[in-house]
Write a structure and sequence with these properties.
The protein is α/β, with parallel strands linked by helices. It folds into 3 domains: 2-113 and 281-388, Rossmann fold (3-Layer(aba) Sandwich), CATH 3.40.50; 120-218, no CATH class; 225-278, no CATH class. The chain has helices spanning 33-53, 60-66, 124-127, 140-152, 197-218, 225-228, 231-242, 245-252, 264-278, 296-310, 325-340, 346-349, 391-407, 412-421; strands at residues 2-9, 12-19, 22-26, 80-84, 88-93, 98-103, 114-118, 161-162, 168-173, 178-183, 188-191, 283-288, 317-322, 364-370, 375-378. A 6-stranded mixed beta sheet has the order 7-12-13-3-14-15, sandwiched between helices. The chain has a 5-stranded antiparallel beta sheet with strand order 2-1-4-5-6, with helices on one face. It has a 4-stranded antiparallel beta sheet with strand order 8-9-10-11, with no helix packed on it. Strand 14 (364-370) and strand 15 form a beta hairpin. Helix 7 packs across helix 9. The longest helix has 22 residues, at 197-218. The termini are far apart.
Amino acid sequence: MEKLIISSIGPIKKISIDLGKINVLIGPQSSGKSIIAKILSFCQWVEKRYFLDRSFKYSAIEELLNYHHLGPAFFSDESSFYYESNYLKIEYKGKALNRIITQKERSNEYKVTKNIYIPSERNFVSAIPNLSKYKENNDNVMSFVYDWYSAKRHYNKNNCLKVLDLGVSYYNDEEPDNDMLTISNNNLEFQLNEGSSGLQSLVPMLIMVDYLSLEIENKGRISSVSEQDNMLKMISTAMNELFSKKRIKELSKDVGTDDFNLSNTEVDQLLQFINRRTTYSCSKFIIEEPEQNLFPQTQSDLVYYLINRMKINSGHFLFLTTHSPYILYALNNCLLAGILKDKVPTEVRRELKCYKSAISPEDVNVWEMVGSTGGLKKINNSDLKTINDHYFNTIMSEILDEYYTLLSYLDEGQVNKSAAKS
């Protein structure tokens, strides 16, 4: 369970959302979608750092405003945001972003997660070679660059990544560090920065999702040196949380000797605690505008792919911001497939791309930003559990109304001639 409340930040007056496994936020430009995504990303990071470091000494100005490019003009004395998970509560208030962090009773059950923010500027990594040398900035774009460089090394000529159903595969030629694309029907090879804008936007996103959804499930081990360096501190913290003061005093007598008398139960408790802190349990993805530069059919295939990958691990989490109706249309197919389950004949299921990505409506939340009120509304249908009427339908209706209004001024002969051709 995760909950996020934001008040008086930028165009947002007041929003409150209960997050599920799959979360989608739609709305026009400058309505506050990215603010919500960035604050959520920050809060998930604060939670992780708090449990790994056993304290939180980082500056919100540096790690939220600068890292996520949220200007101070978005904040006032009335600004606040509140985040709550199963393990702690985080609250920031005012223009100075004064912080309160409160642990909950289940805090010792916290399992470390891999948090990844995929910005709309992700095609930056495709278009500009040798980005690893640009290290002067610490922001969400450069963080994505570092994660991209780490992930792409796992895809070589013998382990290519299929790019949806586009007939294209990706691999990294490590020695010159070239990102290569291969067209399957003629084996044509070219570099990613020579590909279409759609591929330059799509491939980095797919690499990150594929690697972090599958690799976490298969291995899960943390590779971060800084996190491994915290091991001794973590053991001390574990003992303080798991054992009584009397027992810790007894054990402290054994420090510096070869005989550290832990019972089998105490060893198991320590190992379980450390495992939760040093092994990624799942990945949390926040993705801005996944539809960027993509044809509608590719957008649909991308949604099916993303949901399919989230189903690999019960803890995987996805938060999308989007301007595209096709994202919602594809998501609706996955929801309906989840509702119908085995009612659809097997031969029909084989023909439906969405069926491998069928998901329970209980795992999905979709909200629409309401610019006039500075809030949002949930648009999941309370009866059928699919996505209800949304502003995309309103816009389409308005566009068609203009078309039919203009059409009414055509001469009758022109209308009949046009109908005959069609």
